[in-house]
Amino acid sequence: MKTFKTAFLHTLPIMFSYVFLGTAFGIMMHDAGYGAGWSAAASIFIYTGAFQMALAGFLKAGAAIPSILITAFALGSRHVFYGISFIEDFKRMGKRMLYMIFSLTDETYALYCAPAPVGEGVSLEDYRFASAILCQLYWVAGSVLGAVIGNVVPFDFTGIDFTMTALFVTVFIDQWRNTKDHRAALTGLGASVLCLLLFGKSNFILPALLIASVVLVAIARKEENGDVR
Question: Buried (b) or exposed (e) across 120-155, using 16+ Cβ within 10 A?
Answer without folding.
Answer: eebeebbbbbbbbbbbbebbbbbbbbbbbbbeeeee
